[in-house]
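Training component of the fellowship. As part of building independent skills, the fellow (R.M.) carried out the full modelling exercise for a liganded target. The chosen ligand was 3-methyl-2-oxobutanoic acid. The inputs are recorded below so that the supervisory panel can assess the work.
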Amino acid sequence: MGKRKTIYDFLQMKKEGKKIVFLTSYDFPTAQFAETAGLDMLLVGDSLGMCVYGYEGTVPVVMDQMIYHAQAVRRGAPNTFVIGDMPFMSYQSSIEKAVENAGRFLKEAGCDAIKLEGGKRIAGVIRALVDAGIVVMGHIGLTPQSSGQLGGHKAQGRTADLAKLVVEDALAVQAAGAHMILLEAIPPEVGAYIATTLTIPTLSIGAGPGCDGQLLIVSDLIGQFQAFTPKFVKKYCNVAEVVTNAMKSYCADVRGGAFPEEEHCYRMLEGEEDKFKALMKSGR
Ligand code: KIV
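Fellow's submitted model of the complex:
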């Protein structure tokens, strides 16, 4: 089991060109698998709204839900860097509320850092969180919590003028003191430009191979989330198929009397079966 990494390890990895491997995780067993597999960092993402709760988007997710899931992930991956994702309206209405909610991830769930969406427009919030001693990951490009304003879950920065705006957001996030930044759904040229321009580690989810690390949603990676598959997803297995087939076999076994078998039954202790039969017969 490796030692839990810190932001200084991630900075060093950027300098040395070693890729940071980043994945979402929402529960205890998945966090255990991730730690065993050697992930560098885990995000308890508000994508759990869609992947775990079946909401249409991330907007309905609330702080308490995030805390419960972050606690489970922390228990499953005690030696991995864990980031709590600030849900919609946990940081937008006031700086005080943002600091209080971010602090909950550290105090109540033992997270190492928090992530929040937005560039220039939330620079003041990032500064306040950093001033409060919190490790912060920014998140720009496609920001799912404001997908309504973006016209849906669409790639960002696909024209030169729009790409310039994404770069300006990245610079604003770094200038506000963020320790890392996540770039979502932007062209690889823009991702690579930002990665080489910024001194802080840049993580990509659909921002190309030029970034310092890669993030995938675990439910996409294992083929569990079925509503849609973004272009940046690579599925490494098909859990939906494996689990559905296992459940179909269980249905067939129970209905056909093939389960449970002898090996799945508890036996009475030596001599107790005859005593039991006699007792039942005597009615006492
Ligand atoms: O909640 C999440 O998992 C995220 C990713 C979509 C980047 O923020």
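The panel noted the following from the submitted structure. Residues 24, 43, 45-47, 85, 144, 182, 184, 205, 215, 217 surround 3-methyl-2-oxobutanoic acid (CB under 6 Å). The two ends are 58 Å apart (CA to CA).
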